[in-house]
Design goal:
By secondary structure, the chain is mainly alpha-helical. It has two domains: about 70 residues, no CATH class; about 100 residues. It is about 70% helix and about 10% strand. It has a two-stranded antiparallel ribbon with strand order 1-2. Strand 1 and strand 2 form a beta hairpin. The N and C termini lie far apart (about 180 Å). The model has no long low-confidence stretch (mean pLDDT about 85).
């Protein structure tokens, strides 16, 4: 890529000259014999530029000539406003993320609160179940004591029944003996 080139052209006897140049920007310096070099200006040759005189190109308006300072400042303000709008948009996105995070935290806190309430209810249910179990255990203990007492009473009654059975057996034997004696006495009385 060429960055800098130098070209010169000498005019003819009538002061005319002609140069064919590529598109680009050129610095024009006039060299007159006996005088120091003079910077005439900068010309820009565009792809669509028409052939013209050096004065045409030197006098042509450039973008800098067309755009006054106030317009440049306005464009700078528009660019700054666009940057600020982008920053505001990013800040709004960050704020939205923060809002979403806060809502998630609120939901998590509500869930934790519900879980804590459920745990408290479960603990209360466990306490009630424990109390019911203690009552049932006490009732079982009482029933066991009552069963033990009933068993002892049954044992006592069984011993009493056994004693009564032996007494009945003894009485039955005595009755049998008495019956035999009566029968023998009756047979004796009959034979006499």
């Amino acid at each position: 890529v060429l960055v800098n080139t130098v070209a010169s052209e000498n005019p003819d006897e009538a002061g005319r000259y002609s140069m064919d140049v590529e598109y680009g920007q050129y610095s024009v310096i006039l060299l007159v014999e006996g005088f120091p070099p003079s910077h005439a200006g900068i010309i820009t040759v565009y792809e669509g530029s028409r052939p013209g005189t050096l004065n045409d190109f030197l006098g042509a308006m450039t973008e800098d000539d067309v755009m006054p300072e106030a317009l440049r400042r306005f464009e700078a303000m528009v660019e700054e406003a666009a940057r600020n709008a982008e920053a505001a948009s990013q800040s709004a996105a960050v704020a939205k993320k923060s809002e979403t995070a806060a809502a998630s935290s609120k939901n998590a806190a509500k869930t934790s609160e519900t879980n804590a309430a459920n745990s408290a209810q479960a603990a209360a249910s466990s306490q009630t179940a424990s109390a019911n179990s203690a009552t049932a255990a006490k009732k079982s203990e009482t029933n066991a004591k009552n069963s033990e007492t009933a068993a002892k009473t049954s044992e006592t009654n069984a011993k009493s029944s056994q004693t009564a059975a032996k007494t009945s057996e003894t009485n039955a034997k005595a009755s049998e003996t008495a019956a035999k004696n009566s029968q023998a006495a009756a047979a004796e009385s009959e034979s006499a």
